[in-house]
Specification:
There is one protein chain. The chain contains 4 helices and 2 strands, in the order ββαααα. It has one domain. It has a two-stranded antiparallel ribbon with strand order 1-2. 15% of the residues are buried. The two termini are 30 Å apart. Strand 1 and strand 2 form a beta hairpin. It is globular. It is mostly helical and 94 residues long.
Amino acid sequence: MHLHTQPLVVAHNSQSAATSVYCFETVLLGLLEMRGFDLIQARVHRKWAKLPGQTVDGMVLQAFPQGGTEQQALAVLHEALSTLKASLPPIQFV
């Protein structure tokens, strides 16, 4: 999968290369880029929301509401990603 989005965290250790951590928001942004808004929104409402015993994450439903737009999805996902980045401490390896 080729993502044009940045990883959530890049951690460095003096004895290893950088480690990238991709969160669900970043994965959804990559899927939007690769598969398109209509397909992802259809999956959320026609498949994910109908799995027995499962609920769809509130952020996903906010990004892909019935009748929503790609611009709305992008705004919600980028805002969630910014909030995560701001709230996480840097990862350190010991």
